[in-house]
């Protein structure tokens, strides 16, 4: 067991401050990772604030982790000291339920272990995330990072990336499909990049006309301003797929009207009550609304490989860990393009 | 053009009274049908009351029509005088859009013509339904009825039947699946019969313990009382498919909790706003909620053939047309097992 420098919130909505976490010994299936970069996800803030309930303090957030292998356990092959690796939202699962067997550990029927605020099976208590010097993770949950992409900007792929990639794959988005990405934040900007790279005709759907230029630069073929009823009417019934990244409850009925018959809108952002949906918005046109959360380890590796081939990373703003509380305020007010990433040297050196 | 005896509402929420409707001449593609039985659907009442807006008066309801061919146009083959036929919710569609080409006339992109309160392309004005002596319908929208089943009890197959059959087919419900049918009314009782006949393990889900006995007699293997939180917890995450026939807005969140990962609940009843749905109820488990409306002509014929083979009809209570207003009151208070059917002799003879 070792003591490792970290940043933690000690109570709901508290500022994050320096804290030392315990890390287990490196066991036979473990990989110890020296953390170089860690992305800042809105979920970090929800957990710090206990917005979803169930937060356990101290909270050490961080599940978009990039680093280099420091040490491997004796059963670990294929990873060696110095390898560039990533860890996302999960660090363990039961490995024997149907979901795990299908490579969908995020839906583990016995409870996936989240990277932070999960149940720590090794030390007891709860898990501590990536706002720390290093982390020790079972080899099955360690991803190989492509070396040819901008490493620091790759951190958000581990959560924002896979969260948008997985539904595009599962609902079989393909070349020529008309795909709408609703909301242009950390998730939305990755949705636009991926849908574009997959060959779809991408429409960025936003309430904010000022986001149009950025949307097109990220890969959108068109921008649809959802507050403009004429524009919405023009696009009515024309979308093969909608990826809804809006992070708060909202009125989904206008978006359902954009779908073609038999098409689906997938929610990846709003883990809270939506405004009342009209049954007729689904019934007329046999439409679906579904949800999706992150993605399995196999699929995450496929996404990272795809990012390597297509040179896809997130648009990020680098910060030092000492500025994390200010960064949280800016995330909450959507004042970031499009993801903060912490340079973890700042934790080790300052 | 001919004048035909019918029953109509002259204004919103008015009682139905005798009325004469105009029927067009029998054109070359037409079939004239002497109506023997007509089911009473809750949609009839919604249209009479203008609950959904857009009702045009006088309203002559009725889209669960069973009768015998009186006369056929010169282009009609395969139907002859005396044949037992049915007409459901649609009497025409464009026939050239993608939906029509795929046999999904109910989703016609140029606007399907409903059996009543649709746009009458022949005489102008709006269409008049089956609460009348006879009807003239394009051959493409006339179904062949199996002669071996109880004809009068077959009328509701044309709406309640296809409305529940179509989603069971589209979402591929098969032998051994655990299927829940939510709500036991006109739609629900057909859902239970069909899911049972398809070999599913059927759970009838209802708020009313007093419906348990009926549910099992109709073919349910189990009854789940949705107000009983212990029972709901036992069934959590166990359903392959849910058919939600509840005809009014309600809280769908507890039902979404019953679904397995990747499973779908299909709404067929509630054409109105639902209570706020929690995004997390979809996201955790990659679940879907979808809608479905009636079914295409080809699929309706397949359902009728299946009913002939498996001797499936609705449970009905027969009435005379003169008692229609009292029947409407009883439908609204759910006091019917499970569908009223009008014996149309009462219109012709009294």
TrEMBL record, chains A, B:
UniProt keyword terms in alphabetical order: Metal-binding, NADP, Oxidoreductase, Zinc
Main enzyme class: oxidoreductase
Necessary cofactors: Zn(2+)
Nuclease as UniProt keyword: no
Highest rank taxon of the organism: Bacteria
Domain Enoyl reductase (ER): 13-342
Assigned EC number: 1.1.1.2
Keyword Zinc: yes
Family: Belongs to the zinc-containing alcohol dehydrogenase family.
Protein known as: alcohol dehydrogenase (NADP(+))
UniProt source species: Salinimicrobium marinum
């Amino acid at each position: 067991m070792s003591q490792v420098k970290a940043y933690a919130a000690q109570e709901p909505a508290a500022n994050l401050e320096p804290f030392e976490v315990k890390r287990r010994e490196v066991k036979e299936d473990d990989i110890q990772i020296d953390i170089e970069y860690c992305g800042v996800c809105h979920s970090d803030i929800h957990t710090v604030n206990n917005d979803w309930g169930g937060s356990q303090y101290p909270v050490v957030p961080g599940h978009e982790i990039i680093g280099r292998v420091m040490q491997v356990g004796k059963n670990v092959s294929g990873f060696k000291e110095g390898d560039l690796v990533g860890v996302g939202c999960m660090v363990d699962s039961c490995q024997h339920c149907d979901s795990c067997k299908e490579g969908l550990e995020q839906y583990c029927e016995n409870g996936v272990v989240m990277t932070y605020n999960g149940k720590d099976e090794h030390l007891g208590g709860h898990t501590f995330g990536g706002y720390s010097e290093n982390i020790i993770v079972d080899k099955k949950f360690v991803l190989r990072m492509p070396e040819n992409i901008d490493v620091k900007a790759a951190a958000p792929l581990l959560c924002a990336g896979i969260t948008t990639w997985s539904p595009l794959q599962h609902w079989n988005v393909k070349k020529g499909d008309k795909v709408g990405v609703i909301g242009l934040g950390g998730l939305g900007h990755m949705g636009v990049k991926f849908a574009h790279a997959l060959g779809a005709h991408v429409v960025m759907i936003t309430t904010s006309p000022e986001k149009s230029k950025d949307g097109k630069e990220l890969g959108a073929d068109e921008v649809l301003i959802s507050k403009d009823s004429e524009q919405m009417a023009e696009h009515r019934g024309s979308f093969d797929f909608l990826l809804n990244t809006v992070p708060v409850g909202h009125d989904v009925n206008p978006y359902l009207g954009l779908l073609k018959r038999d098409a689906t809108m997938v929610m990846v952002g709003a883990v809270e009550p939506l405004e009342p949906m009209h049954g007729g918005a689904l019934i007329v046109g046999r439409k679906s609304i579904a949800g999706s959360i992150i993605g399995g380890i196999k699929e995450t590796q496929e996404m990272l490989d795809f990012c390597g081939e297509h040179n896809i990373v997130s648009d990020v703003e680098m910060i030092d860990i000492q500025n994390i509380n200010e960064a949280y305020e800016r995330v909450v007010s959507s004042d970031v393009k499009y993801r903060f990433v912490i340079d973890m040297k700042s934790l080790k050196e300052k």
